Amino acid sequence: MRSVRPRGRSRFAAGLVIVAILAVFPFAGCEKLDRNMYDNPAFRPQEEPVRLPPGASVPTKGLEHTPNPGTPEAAALKNPERVTDFSLLTGKELYGIYCTPCHGASGKGDGPVAKKFVPTPADISATGYGSHHPEGELFAVVTHGKNGMPPFRSDLTAKERWLVIAYLRTLK
Ligand code: HEC
Fold it and tell me: Pocket residues for ligand 1 (CB within 6 Å)?
């Protein structure tokens, strides 16, 4: 009976050692056995080779192609949006946010920022620039900008730009 205890203890100790070795060994070995997770093909953003979309994939938000100002194509553009009292109100609101600082509430180029411009922004009301330019030309200018006039293609959607132009037509 006496000798059982120590033997039991040493067995327990040996068991612990084996468990410890088994616990450590698999992890220590992985790195050497399978390096997939270590040497994976990771790329930094924009790093070559850039992945191309699969062949025959169709963009859902196609690029906008608005002709440049001053071209006959721009002049031929027609407002595709229905002009209603409500859309004119939306156009007025957008004009107030994006255009009045330079063009003024009247469209005559008397906004607070306009004073800093040489030459000052044109009179874009229906009696000024607007009276001798088709709506498509105005749309192209607002889309692409012109000299000191900033482009609005990323700030306003095409629909919003047309609503602003429709509102411009009502400015006298
Ligand atoms: C940062 C000031 C600024 C803002 C904001 C601005 N414009 Fe202009 N805009 C100008 C200037 C300057 C010109 C004159 C460009 C030129 O012909 O040299 C101009 C010209 C124009 C013209 C053409 C007139 C011309 O002289 O060819 C139109 C149309 C126009 N702006 C509409 C708009 C509309 C609509 C908005 C709002 C969505 C707007 N602009 C916002 C500064 C601005």
Answer: 98-99, 101-103, 113, 117, 121-122, 124, 129, 138, 141-142, 146-150, 152, 164, 168
Is the pTM of the predicted complex or chain greater than 0.90? no
Atom of ligand 1 nearest to the CA of 120: 12
Distance CA 78, CA 136 (A): 6
The ligand 1 atom at the shortest distance from the C-alpha of residue 114 is 2
Burial class for 90, CB neighbours closer than 10 Å (0-12, 13-18, 19+): middle
- The residue contributing the CA closest to ligand 1 atom 37 is 99
Condensed to tens digits (0 to 9), the pLDDT of residues 60-97 reads 777 788 999 999 999 999 999 999 999 999 999 999 99
